Amino acid sequence: MSDQRDVVIIGAGSSGLSAAKELQRLGISTTVIEGSHRIGGRAYSEELVPGTWFDLGCAWLTDGDDNPFARIADSLGILLGRSTWEAYNNTDNHRFIHNGVRLGREEHDACRRYYDESYEAVAVAAGTDPEPSMSDVIDLESPYAPPFLESVATGWGVDVDGVSCADNTTSTGELGYPVPHGYGNLVAAWGADVEVTLNARAERIDWSGPGVAVETPKGTVKADLVLVTVSTGMMASGEIAFDPLLPDWKLEAIQGLPMGTENKMGLAFDTDVFGPEGRGHHTVWSDNADSAKVDVNGMGFNSVSVFTGGRHGIWLEKQGPQACHDFAVDRVAEIFGNDIRKHVVRSITTAWSSEPWTYGSWACALPGQAHQREPLGQALDDRMFFAGEATSIGSQGTCDGAYKSGIRAAEEIAAHIKGTARDRRPLRTPDPCFSRLHAPRR
Question: What domains appear along the chain, each with residue ranges and CATH number?
């Protein structure tokens, strides 16, 4: 890692990989370093049982065919679960289970109205100054508040008292397609042609100039520019030293966009315990305050994903994998009965709040801080650039939002290099074969 390149990219998640591909397409040399042992970042798949994949991070292609990864999957010959769209996108197929009993039609409709009214109140509050939290504008005394609070905690990774109304309102992604063989596997296959130095954590970034120097356990990488794609949790941790220190306005952006935590528990069963009508979304809650969101058989296998987030998600994570397993099995049993317990064959649980490469699932704006996504993405001294889902507006918290931010940062870098470095070689005309995507080896 001694040869100086045009750009050093820190992080090989979706944003770092898309930036590397775009810069290389434009003839700009890059070095990509990644602290982990793998690429993909928060897109990561593991096998629950042979042939059944579980995504520990992102699992659904938001916005369906409008998601760039839908086109990438098609080009790679990777199957998407397009046929499950209707089963999951229809609000009537979102079941609500209270104390082990599914809501009847009248209660279901009342619950849906509460959701709609709550989101309408949040949208109105998004334009006020000072901005309240979501908890300040919804009816917390409603009998349907518990499932709504769970949906916010899992959807944002933060409880309603810590979520920005404006951030919620600008999020435009709609539920799309699952990736039966793993969204993480899709990202890894797409990024396989990018040269990445793994186990090379950025420890110090010297941007005092000219150029930049990034210190890693494997040596120092020098370049003209640096692109930082790590999470706000990583930047706030202090584990990457910046020399000189980041300016106050950049630190305020990082602090205004702390990481939320959504943890997932995947359960595999040895038979179909759900029945022909079981597939879809379920929200479960009880009077003893146990609640969760449960996606049943989304990937077309005998499996479920159980979600919990916010304070409860972090608390449960700290109790350990067995507690997470028991919690998940109990929630599924509330939906399909206790007989399902004897058919559980394996579980996988996540621990995103303590994940050392991110310290959370995604960035969630504090009340009054949604505007910080734009300054977070702004470059410093035309030498240090920033990308990642936290810098995205509209697709925040998503893999495709991170992808798009990497393209945006690459375009900014290319414009800077083309506009200021007159003594450089001209940008090459892209080789049409260079960016050809290759199917993963099986």
Answer: 5-39+194-256+369-420 (3.50.50.60), 46-64+80-170+262-354 (3.90.660.10)
